[in-house]
C-alpha cells in the first residue's frame, strides 16, 4: 500500500510506520475510501479492506509483502470483472509471485525503533519433475512495541503457493494464507483531547489501578480538563484475529484463441476486538468491564471467465458467486475487583469465557451473484475501445441473536429482515490512443453500485446496524449507493521525461453516512441517506531523469467534493449543501527523488496534505501536514552462497511531523463539532534491514 502512495491522487495514512495496524490505516483513491475500492488477490475477492471487515480481510493479512508479484490499480471507475460488491471507484488487483524454477529461497530481517523486529524466510522447491511442478512456502513474523503507551503489536503469517503447469500454456495453482494478529491498539482521540492533553495520550495499560480509579471519577492524567474525561480513560484496547484463506486457480488454454480462468476460494476468520468500558460496571461490582466484539466470517465462492480473441476483438465474460455468513456478536466480561494496595494487570488477550451479558448479536447471510461481459476492439494499431457491463445481485438477510436493552437502548435490533441490491446494467466504456511516438490519450466512463454494508450494531453506515424501529422507518427510503465516474487524461513518455495529467468527475447518488454521538464504547449512530455528492478533480505528474541514475518526481492533486443536499435529522435541518466531503483533502503535493550510483541507491519523498473537513457541516477540520521519508540501500551482490545481499536503512517521518488521521471508514464523523475517531500518525522512526537470496 505504501508503494501506491506515490501515485497522484492516492492518499495512504497509517498510525504505525509499518502499516500493520489495520485499525489505524486509511487509503483513498480520488476521494474514494478503502471501503469503496475493490481489492482482489490472484482473483480472490478480499471484500472491504477495512478494520472489522465483514466480507473479507485486509490486504496486509492476505499476503506477505515479500511475496508480492505485482499490483494493478484502476484509479477511475474500477473494472467490470472485479469480484467486489463495494466498488464505487477504483480497484486494486494484487498478484502473488510465482515459485522459482530453481531450488533456493529468501531471507530477510529488519530491526529498528520501538524494539521492532521483522523476520521473513521463504523456501522455493524449484521444478520437482519434468512436468514443472513447483512451490514455495514462507513464514513472516513481525514484533514491535507501541510508539506511545505500553503494549505490543504481534503479527505472524505463512504463505504457500503451488503451481502445476499443464501442456498447451495452461496451469493450475494453489494459494494459501494463514495470518495471526495480536495487537494493542492506539487510543482514539478527539480534537479537544489533542489540543488540551497533547499527542501522547494513551491507554492506562498496564496500570489497572489508574483505570479502576478513573472509572470511579478519580483522574490522574488531567483527563478532567476535557469535556468528556471518561473517553480518555481506557485500560486497554486490543485486536486478535486469525484468518485462513485459500484459492485454487485454473488457467486453461482451450484453443488458440480461447482461454478459461476460474478460481474456487474459501475464507474463515475468527476475531476478538476488545476495549475497556469505564461506563459499564462489571457484574461482580468492579467499576469497569471489558467489551469484546467477537465476529466470525465464513465465506466461499468461485469466479469463472472465458476470453475469446476473434479478429480485432477480445471478448471477455464471466460470473462470480459468493456465500458469506457473518456472525457479529458483542459481549461484556467481568474485570477483577481491586482491594486497597493490591496490584493487578488483567490480560487484555485472555481467553474470553462466561460473559455476564450478551450486549447484542446479529447474524448476516449474504448471497452475491455478478455477471459481466466486455469487448476490447483494436481497429488500428495503437488504438483501442472498450465497452462492457456487469449485473450485480446481492441479497442479505439478518437475524437478531441477542439484545441487552440497558446497553443498546432499544427493545429490538434489526432482525428477521433483508435487503437486496440489484443493478441489472452497470456499463463501462473506455478508450486508449497512443499517437505519434510518445503521446497517449485515454478516457473512462462507468456506473457502479455498492451493496449495503454490514457491521455490528451502531458501528458503521449500515442500514442493518440500527434498531428494528429505525430499520422499519428507513426501509422505504434507503437505496444502494451508486456513482457515475468520468475521467480523461493525457500521458507523455520519453527517456528523460514522463508527464501526465488527468481530470475526473464523479456523481454519487444515495450516499450513506453514519452520524455519531455518545461514547467510543457505545456510539449512538444514525444512518442517513445523504443524497448526492459531486466530485471534480485533477492530477498532474512530472518525472525528470536529467542524469544517469537520478529520477525526480513531482505531482499535484486537487479534489473538490461537495454534498448536494442539506441533512435533516429529528426535524432539524443542517446546512450541508455545498459543504466539502469529510476526510479527503482538497490538495496534495508529492515529491520524490531517487539516485542510484553503482550498487548504492538513495531516495527521499515528501507529501503535503491540506486540511480535511472533519464534520459534515465543516465546522471542524483536521490540520494540514508535511510528511518526509528517507531511505538508502546497498547491494553487495553475491557473497558466498548468498545472492543479491542488500542492506537498507530507512527513516520514516524524517522531520518529526505531528499529524492526525481518521480511524474506521463509516462511523467516525460527527454532524458538527468533535468526536473520538482520530489517531495520531507515527513519529520519526529508524529501521535497518538485510535481505538475501540463496
TrEMBL record:
Gene: fecA_2
Localisation per UniProt entry: Cell outer membrane
InterPro entries on file: Beta-barrel_TonB, Beta-barrel_TonB_sf, Plug_dom, Plug_dom_sf, TonB-dep_rcpt-like
Gene3D superfamilies found in the cross-reference section: TonB-dependent receptor, beta-barrel domain, TonB-dependent receptor, plug domain
PANTHER family listed in its UniProt record: CATECHOLATE SIDEROPHORE RECEPTOR FIU, FERRICHROME IRON RECEPTOR-RELATED
Pfam families documented for this protein: Plug (PF07715), TonB_dep_Rec_b-barrel (PF00593)
Family per record: Belongs to the TonB-dependent receptor family.
Keyword Transport: yes
Annotated ranges, domain TonB-dependent receptor plug: 2-87
Keywords annotated in UniProt: Cell outer membrane, Ion transport, Iron, Iron transport, Membrane, Receptor, Signal, TonB box, Transmembrane, Transmembrane beta strand, Transport
Keyword set includes Membrane: yes
Domain TonB-dependent receptor-like beta-barrel positions: 192-654
Protein name (database record): TonB-dependent receptor
Entry membrane topology: Multi-pass membrane protein
Principal localisation: membrane
Amino acid at each position: 500500500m505504501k508503494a501506491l502512495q506515490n501515485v497522484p491522487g492516492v492518499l495512504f495514512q497509517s498510525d504505525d510506520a509499518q502499516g500493520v495496524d489495520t485499525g489505524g490505516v486509511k487509503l483513498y483513491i480520488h476521494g474514494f475510501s478503502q471501503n469503496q475500492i475493490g481489492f482482489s488477490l490472484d482473483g480472490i475477492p478480499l471484500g472491504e479492506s477495512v478494520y472489522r471487515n465483514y466480507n473479507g480481510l485486509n490486504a496486509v493479512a492476505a499476503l506477505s509483502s515479500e511475496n508480492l508479484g505485482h499490483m494493478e490499480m484502476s484509479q477511475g471507475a474500477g473494472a467490470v470483472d472485479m469480484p467486489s460488491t463495494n466498488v464505487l471507484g477504483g480497484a486494486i488487483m494484487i498478484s502473488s509471485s510465482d515459485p522459482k524454477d530453481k531450488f533456493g529461497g529468501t531471507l530477510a530481517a529488519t530491526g529498528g525503533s520501538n524494539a521492532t523486529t521483522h523476520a521473513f524466510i521463504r523456501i522455493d522447491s524449484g521444478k520437482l519433475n519434468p512436468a514443472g511442478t513447483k512451490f514455495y512456502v514462507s513464514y513472516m513474523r513481525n514484533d514491535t512495541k507501541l510508539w506511545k503507551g505500553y503494549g505490543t503489536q504481534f503479527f505472524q503469517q505463512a504463505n504457500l503457493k503451488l503451481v502445476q503447469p499443464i501442456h498447451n500454456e495452461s496451469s493450475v495453482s494453489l494459494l494459501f494464507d494463514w495470518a495471526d494478529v495480536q495487537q494493542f491498539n492506539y487510543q482514539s482521540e478527539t480534537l479537544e483531547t489533542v489540543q488540551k492533553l497533547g499527542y501522547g495520550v494513551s491507554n492506562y495499560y498496564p496500570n489497572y489501578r489508574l483505570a479502576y480509579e478513573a472509572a470511579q471519577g478519580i483522574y490522574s492524567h488531567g483527563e478532567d480538563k476535557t469535556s468528556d474525561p471518561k473517553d480518555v480513560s481506557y485500560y486497554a484496547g486490543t485486536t486478535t484475529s486469525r484468518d485462513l484463506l485459500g484459492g485454487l486457480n485454473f488457467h486453461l488454454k482451450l484453443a488458440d484463441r480461447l482461454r478459461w480462468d476460474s478460481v474456487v476460494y474459501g475464507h474463515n476468520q475468527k476475531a476478538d476486538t476488545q476495549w475497556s468500558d469505564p461506563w459499564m460496571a462489571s457484574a461482580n461490582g468492579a467499576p469497569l468491564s471489558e467489551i469484546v466484539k467477537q465476529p466470525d466470517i465464513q465465506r466461499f465462492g468461485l469466479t469463472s471467465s472465458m476470453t475469446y480473441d476473434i479478429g480485432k476483438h477480445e471478448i471477455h465474460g464471466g460470473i462470480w458467486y459468493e456465500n458469506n455468513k457473518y456472525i457479529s456478536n458483542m459481549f461484556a466480561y467481568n474485570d477483577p475487583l481491586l482491594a486497597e494496595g493490591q496490584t493487578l494487570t488483567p490480560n487484555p488477550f485472555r481467553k474470553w469465557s462466561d460473559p455476564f451479558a450478551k450486549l447484542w448479536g446479529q447474524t448476516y447471510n449474504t448471497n452475491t451473484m455478478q455477471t459481466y461481459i466486455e469487448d476490447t476492439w483494436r481497429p488500428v494499431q495503437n488504438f483501442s475501445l472498450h465497452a462492457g457491463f456487469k449485473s450485480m445481485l446481492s441479497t442479505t438477510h439478518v437475524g437478531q441473536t441477542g439484545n441487552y436493552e440497558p446497553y443498546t437502548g432499544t427493545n429490538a435490533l434489526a432482525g428477521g429482515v433483508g435487503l437486496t441490491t440489484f443493478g441489472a446494467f452497470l456499463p463501462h466504456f473506455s478508450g486508449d490512443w497512443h499517437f505519434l511516438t510518445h503521446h497517449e490519450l485515454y478516457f473512462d466512463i462507468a456506473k457502479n453500485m455498492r451493496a449495503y454494508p454490514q457491521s455490528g450494531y451502531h458501528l458503521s453506515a449500515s442500514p442493518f446496524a440500527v434498531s428494528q424501529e429505525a430499520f422499519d422507518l428507513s426501509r422505504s427510503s434507503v437505496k444502494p449507493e451508486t456513482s457515475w465516474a468520468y475521467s480523461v487524461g493525457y500521458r507523455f513518455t520519453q527517456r528523460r521525461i514522463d508527464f501526465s495529467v488527468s481530470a475526473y468527475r464523479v456523481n454519487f447518488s444515495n450516499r450513506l453516512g453514519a452520524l455519531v454521538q455518545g461514547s467510543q464504547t457505545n456510539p449512538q449512530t444514525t444512518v442517513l441517506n445523504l443524497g448526492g455528492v459531486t466530485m471534480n478533480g485533477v492530477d498532474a505528474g512530472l518525472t525528470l531523469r536529467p542524469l544517469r541514475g537520478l529520477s525526480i518526481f513531482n505531482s499535484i492533486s486537487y479534489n473538490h467534493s461537495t454534498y448536494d443536499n442539506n441533512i435533516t435529522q429529528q426535524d432539524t435541518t443542517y446546512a450541508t449543501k455545498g459543504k466539502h466531503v469529510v476526510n479527503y483533502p482538497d490538495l496534495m503535493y508529492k515529491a520524490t527523488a531517487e539516485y542510484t550510483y553503482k550498487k548504492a541507491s538513495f531516495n527521499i519523498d515528501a507529501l503535503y496534505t491540506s486540511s480535511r473537513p472533519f464534520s459534515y457541516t465543516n465546522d471542524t477540520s483536521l490540520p494540514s501536514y508535511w510528511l518526509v521519508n528517507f531511505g538508502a540501500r546497498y547491494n553487495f551482490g553475491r557473497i558466498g552462497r548468498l545472492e543479491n545481499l542488500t542492506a537498507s536503512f530507512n527513516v520514516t517521518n524524517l522531520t518529526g511531523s505531528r499529524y492526525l488521521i481518521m480511524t474506521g471508514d463509516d462511523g467516525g464523523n460527527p454532524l458538527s463539532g468533535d468526536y473520538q475517531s482520530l489517531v495520531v500518525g507515527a513519529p520519526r522512526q529508524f529501521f535497518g534491514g538485510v535481505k538475501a537470496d540463496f
